[in-house]
Amino acid sequence: MSANAVSDEQQTQWIEVCDKNALDSDTGVCALINGKQIAVFYVGKLDEVFAIDNYDPIGKANVLSRGIIGTQGEHICVASPLYKEHYDLRTGECLENSDIRVTAYAVKIENGKVLIAV
């Protein structure tokens, strides 16, 4: 690595969003991070938290946090409340159209707090 290069880990900024126990199972909430809306989902059966852009690129509105969580095959996804496209919570890929995706963010839990990488 050159003197000017910085590793991905050094560039990653972890932002504390909320207490994990403040999240209801199998629902989403919207967090405003650095002026951007991010949808945060707690999937109870997996005991896992996911984060994706809240903006639905097909419906052109910030609504994904209000979508319904479910599965399609091996994908854990959220269905947009507008046109019902499904977005994979791990990758952000639209399951109906692989050319469309939203950003999926790394999430970790530390000391009961939800942190999202930006």
TrEMBL record:
Domain Rieske span(s) in chain numbering: 14-116
Look up the record and give one Gene Ontology term from the biological process aspect.
nitrate assimilation
**Taxonomy, superkingdom:** Bacteria
Q: Does the keyword Oxidoreductase apply?
A: yes
Q: Check the record and name the InterPro entries matching this protein.
A: NirD, Rieske-like_NirD, Rieske_2Fe-2S, Rieske_2Fe-2S_sf
Any one Pfam family match given in the protein's UniProt record, by short name: Rieske_2
Protein name, entry field? Nitrite reductase small subunit NirD
> What species is this protein from?
Gilvimarinus xylanilyticus
- The coding gene here is nirD
